[in-house]
Fold this sequence. Notes:
The chain has 235 residues and is an alpha/beta fold. It has helices at 44-51, 74-84, 100-109, 115-128, 144-156, 174-189, 201-204, 222-234, and strands at 2-13, 16-28, 33-37, 59-64, 67-68, 85-88, 162-166, 193-197, 209-214, 217-221. It has one domain: P-loop containing nucleotide triphosphate hydrolases (Rossmann fold, 3-Layer(aba) Sandwich). Helix content is 38%, strand content 27%. A hairpin with a 2-residue loop joins strand 9 and strand 10. The longest helix is centred in the C-terminal third of the chain and has 16 residues, at 174-189.
Amino acid sequence: MIQLRNIEKTVKSPAGTMWLLRRINLNIKEGEFVTIMGPSGAGKTTLLSIVGMLDDSWAGEYVFNEHVVHKLDRKKRAELNRKYIGFVFQSYHLLDNLTVQENIDVPLSYRDIPRAQRASMVADILDRFQIVGKKDLFPNQLSGGQQQLVGVARAVAGNPKVILADEPTGNLHSAQAKEIMELFKRLNEQGTTIIQVTHSEANAAYGNRVIQLKDGWIVEDTAAAHDTAAAEIRV
Length: 235
């Protein structure tokens, strides 16, 4: 579903060119639950942004669901993003001038979904996340944990094929965090591909594959280790 070949990204700094990602080669199959881990500055969020087509300034080859992303213009990439991907951001990215209900509706409004059906989908999500009572509130009227819940609700409202989550439980207390991870697990079992960035070993345990980054390089991939072991068994 996702194929990355020799993905690299640099930025200019006073000291010269700085590498954020180096020679990233990665295949992610549909239905996987992948965790990206590593120290601060390893390139985790940068990699997630490239996979989510939020970042245009990189080199290499990227194929998403048979679409050759590196040959598409920004408009086509945005269309793919809206059609297939749901995001959970560490810093929420809620729209301050919209209510909870309206924030959840935003990604649905970009799709060809009738208004009545969208309203039903939003109502279902509000109920599932037990935030019906907050549907008319604005983000600045919510706590950080509540804003994160709304961010997760918005991401899953349209039943995306892929969910990209950057520290999805970073602002939640332990009970809420477990609830969100259990939800991700259920969605994954129903076929949704999930890629999360996290420092939490507990969150990583919900997935079936861990990719470790360091200084922009992939230094470990448990799927690769599993494939090697399987090949040795076959031999």
